[in-house]
From TrEMBL:
<dbReference type="GO" id="GO:0000815">
    <property type="term" value="C:ESCRT III complex"/>
</dbReference>
<dbReference type="Pfam" id="PF03357">
    <property type="entry name" value="Snf7"/>
</dbReference>
<keyword id="KW-0813">Transport</keyword>
<dbReference type="InterPro" id="IPR005024">
    <property type="entry name" value="Snf7_fam"/>
</dbReference>
<dbReference type="GO" id="GO:0015031">
    <property type="term" value="P:protein transport"/>
</dbReference>
<dbReference type="GO" id="GO:0006900">
    <property type="term" value="P:vesicle budding from membrane"/>
</dbReference>
<protein>
    <submittedName>
        <fullName>CHM4C protein</fullName>
    </submittedName>
</protein>
<keyword id="KW-0472">Membrane</keyword>
<dbReference type="GO" id="GO:0005771">
    <property type="term" value="C:multivesicular body"/>
</dbReference>
<dbReference type="GO" id="GO:0031902">
    <property type="term" value="C:late endosome membrane"/>
</dbReference>
<keyword id="KW-0963">Cytoplasm</keyword>
<feature type="compositionally biased region" description="Gly residues">
    <location>
        <begin position="9"/>
        <end position="21"/>
    </location>
</feature>
<dbReference type="GO" id="GO:0005829">
    <property type="term" value="C:cytosol"/>
</dbReference>
<dbReference type="GO" id="GO:0009898">
    <property type="term" value="C:cytoplasmic side of plasma membrane"/>
</dbReference>
<keyword id="KW-0967">Endosome</keyword>
<keyword id="KW-0653">Protein transport</keyword>
<comment type="similarity">
    <text>Belongs to the SNF7 family.</text>
</comment>
Amino acid sequence: MSKISKFFKGGGSAASKGRGGPSPQEALARLRETEEMLSKKQEYLETRIERELAVARQHGTKNKRAALQALKRKKRYEKQLNQIDGTLSTIEFQREALENSHTNTEVLKNMGYAAQAMKKVHENMDLNKIDDLMQDITEQQDVAQEISDAISNRATFGDEFDEDELMAELEELEQEELNKGMRDVRLPSVPSTSLPSRPGKMPTCHLTFLMIKPCSSTRKKAEDEDEMKKLAAWAS
């Protein structure tokens, strides 16, 4: 007998006496003992079968009577072995069913303990208070969201001026600067000399702000002619 079987058997004997029936642990231990005993019986019968076969081979036709007796014993052992195989199958099925029933019983028992514990925990809970608490939590979450939105918005301090008015004032300032620049522009004097008699290629002049600006070659020629006039007047 194994130590586990002895443990279950010893632990369940007192309880079985008090209730008048075996406990699941004791029944399982007994079934395991029976399986162990029948397994040993199987090993013994298998050994005897091999031995009887050896005897039959040994005698053979030399001693038919002894050989036939050995074969008869082998047949009886094989029959017992088949019966043990069937018994072991039945015991195994019964043991598994008992183990499953015991497991289900323990599971239901533990679930019952858990249900009682949950009931005890919920005894001091008021559903109305829970609803009020959840409502308070929701309100505080809304307040926190509003605060977060207010903080995340861009600050608009000093932005109460109208942008259209500011743009109009800026355009007026630009127009004033443009008018001032036009007043400061001096028109060039018209040259007093006549155009050259020989036709030639006219220098390219530039037209800027609708005012004729003399080319550099024309100005140089006019200055030379002024100098010649001054010299002629001094010589006379």
